[in-house]
């Protein structure tokens, strides 16, 4: 048992079983032992590789997407570009480089990185030190981001936000909780049934043992972003792994360490924890906030539509030696057996705005 697990067990001894959401928050963000709070998890030597780390083309496509959406809305001078969970800062560096193709976009632009981890904030600052753009950091989305047109990018951010889980039993729905038994953490169902208002009607057909997952932190954040975009203009592009219309009845909480699946409850803080993103719920939250939602569309179809393959051909012409690497990157990003199908893209725009590129 590691130190964080012992502290979680002590918390449960005092307060009783904790929700999956509270466990995720502690395992990911505890200041002393949390996964993101204490390390830099990305890359071949780390625990997982994300799209911007696979190829610069990913960030370039997203940068050009922002520029196009900004163009379509009359090129407002004052604007803000926000990235949620920027990891190593690679995506934002590629976005800003690509945006130099439209220098007016960068004039009057404030870049804000929303990052909970002090370790990763430093990594991002080093990466962006030469960008020539005004960048500031905050640990969570706040009111300082709501006063002007807002462009938001988030890649593999929402999968890290805490979820609550409910399981269908013969005696109704029960919340899945974390208990401590003989100092080991374990799952157990809450003894009391879940109030029926919490479970959506669409889940009525769930079999015994079927799950319902919900991320209140995700829907609340998307609604806030959508309100600002609806009122002030801009656009958000959210990419993540998850399901579109059909969310199935399986539970999706997973732990990954060293590029392999691990036990969710063993060694909290040592592995990344994440869950499938429910894009239908995010789209609904965006509409609730007064904005229009486009997608979700598969990442493969989205990037293909934006011209990822032509961009690769252009880069290969300039540097034929890199052909193999670039073609492999394209296959990883859009191949249906790789990230192309599992990952989805969702866009949020003002209702009056033109349909965004790629959708
Ligand atoms: N977007 C990056 C990194 C994805 S990993 C990429 O594609 O490579 C998730 C990122 O979100 C990390 O930077 C992590 O520290 C950050 N993060 C996770 N939960 C967060 C939260 N609740 N608030 C702010 N940042 C968070």
Bound molecules: S-adenosyl-L-homocysteine
Distance between the termini: 48 Å
Mean of the pLDDT scores?
A: 95
Tell me the major beta sheet. 8 strands, mixed
Total number of distinct structural domains: 1
> Which shape, going by the Cα principal axes?
globular
Strand content bin:
15-25%
Q: Any guess at the CATH architecture? A: 3-Layer(aba) Sandwich
CATH topology: Rossmann fold
The CATH C-level class name? Alpha Beta
Kindly state the percentage of residues in helix. 25-40%
Based on DSSP secondary structure assignment, what is the total number of beta strands? 16
Number of helices: 14
The radius of gyration is: 21 Å
- Report the structural category: alpha/beta
Uncertain segments of ≥5 residues (pLDDT<50)? none
SSE string, helices as H and strands as E = HEHHHHEHHEHEEEEEEHEEEEEHEHHHHE
Could you please describe the fold and organization of this structure?
- Helices cover 38% and strands 24% of the residues.
- The chain has a single domain (35-161, 216-349), classed as 3-Layer(aba) Sandwich (Rossmann fold), CATH 3.40.50.12710.
- The protein has 359 residues and is of the alpha/beta class.
- It has helices at residues 3-15, 20-29, 35-38, 51-54, 56-72, 90-99, 103-106, 118-128, 216-232, 279-288, 299-306, 308-318, 323-334, 339-342, and strands at residues 18-19, 79-84, 109-114, 135-138, 150-155, 164-169, 172-181, 184-189, 211-214, 234-243, 254-257, 260-262, 272-274, 277-278, 292-298, 343-349.
- Strands 2, 3, 4, 5, 10, 14, 15 and 16 form an eight-stranded mixed beta sheet that branches. Strands 1, 6, 7, 8 and 9 form a five-stranded antiparallel beta sheet that branches. A three-stranded antiparallel beta sheet has the order 12-11-13.
- α5 (56-72) packs across α6 (90-99).
- β7 and β8 form a beta hairpin.
- The chain is globular and about 60 Å long.
- The chain is built from 14 helices and 16 strands.
- The site of S-adenosyl-L-homocysteine (SAH) has 20 residues, from α4.
- Residues 36, 42, 50, 52-53, 85-87, 91, 114-117, 120, 140, 155-157, 160-161 line the site of S-adenosyl-L-homocysteine.
């Amino acid at each position: 048992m590691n130190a964080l697990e012992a502290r979680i067990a002590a918390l449960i001894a005092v307060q009783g079983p904790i929700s999956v959401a509270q466990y995720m928050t502690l395992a990911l963000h505890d200041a002393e032992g949390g996964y993101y709070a204490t390390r830099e998890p990305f890359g071949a030597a780390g625990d997982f590789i994300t799209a911007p780390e696979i190829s610069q083309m990913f960030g370039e496509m997203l940068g050009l997407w922002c520029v196009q959406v900004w163009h379509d809305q009359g090129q407002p001078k004052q604007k803000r570009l926000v990235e949620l969970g920027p990891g190593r800062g690679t995506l934002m560096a590629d976005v800003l480089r690509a945006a130099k193709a439209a220098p007016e976009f960068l004039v009057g632009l404030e870049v804000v990185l929303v990052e909970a981890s002090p370790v990763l904030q430093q990594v991002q600052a080093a990466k962006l030190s030469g960008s020539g753009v005004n960048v500031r950091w905050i640990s969570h989305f706040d009111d300082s981001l709501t006063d002007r047109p807002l462009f938001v990018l988030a890649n593999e951010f929402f999968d890290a936000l805490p979820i609550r889980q409910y399981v269908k039993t013969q005696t109704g729905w029960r919340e899945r909780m974390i208990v401590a038994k003989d100092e080991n953490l374990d799952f157990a169902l809450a003894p009391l049934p879940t109030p029926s208002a919490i479970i959506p009607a669409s889940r009525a057909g769930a079999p015994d043992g079927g799950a319902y997952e919900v991320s209140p932190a995700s829907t609340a954040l998307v609604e806030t972003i959508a309100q600002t975009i609806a009122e002030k203009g801009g656009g958000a592009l959210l990419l993540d792994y998850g399901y579109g219309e059909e969310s199935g009845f399986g539970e999706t909480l997973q732990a990954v360490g060293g590029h392999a699946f691990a036990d969710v409850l063993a060694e909290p803080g040592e592995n990344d924890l994440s869950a499938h993103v429910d894009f239908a719920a995010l789209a609904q939250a965006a509409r609730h906030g007064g904005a229009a939602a486009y997608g979700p569309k598969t990442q493969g179809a989205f990037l293909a539509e934006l011209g990822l393959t032509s961009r690769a051909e252009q880069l290969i012409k300039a540097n034929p030696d890199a052909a193999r690497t670039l073609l492999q990157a394209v296959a990883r990003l859009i191949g249906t057996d790789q990230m192309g199908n599992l990952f989805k893209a969702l866009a949020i725009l003002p209702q009056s705005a033109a349909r965004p590129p790629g959708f």
